[in-house]
Fold this sequence. Notes:
Blueprint: H1 3-16, E1 37-41, E2 46-51, E3 66-75, E4 78-86, E5 103-115, E6 118-132, E7 135-140, E8 146-148, E9 157-167, E10 174-181, E11 184-191, E12 193-198, E13 204-208
Amino acid sequence: xxxxxxxxxxxxxxxxxxxxxxxxxxxxxxxxxxxxxxxxxxxxxxxxxxxxxxxxxxxxxxxxxxxxxxxxxxxxxxxxxxxxxxxxxxxxxxxxxxxxxxxxxxxxxxxxxxxxxxxxxxxxxxxxxxxxxxxxxxxxxxxxxxxxxxxxxxxxxxxxxxxxxxxxxxxxxxxxxxxxxxxxxxxxxxxxxxxxxxxxxxxxxxxxxx
Length: 210
């Protein structure tokens, strides 16, 4: 793994260790919200990332779930749009359901290159929990989605962090950090760190965090 990736992964892992396993509330983008942008300046390239909403998508873009993040920028790949979505609790007929009162939850991340009014999908990240009769977690970790150009090569890096689990107790969630640069995918897998108790001396007890 390149050195610049190791540095950013260490930073992101500090968030993983203290992430809870509570499901994020479903939310949709607000069409009335004003677009925001972030500018990352490097020596030879300026990466400008703008927040957008579904009203600004080309008609050819199709996605599932409720939008959590939607951004657009230009780099050496072209005109990019990335969308992350979650379904929240629902019942998807494509899954087999052994339990009568079970539910499913899915999450998606899409990367498109836009040319004119057409958008071509470059890649998609998909994960899910299915047929779960207790609590489901299948959600992106808040404030961890990032678009960067850390190695200043004109090709943006796209960072995702999410958690998945099916449990009926206080226990760690499976965690994943995924980074794409173009079609190259990097991934790190582990689990969240959760507090499970306090000793008589006041010391907190934790599980997970690996």
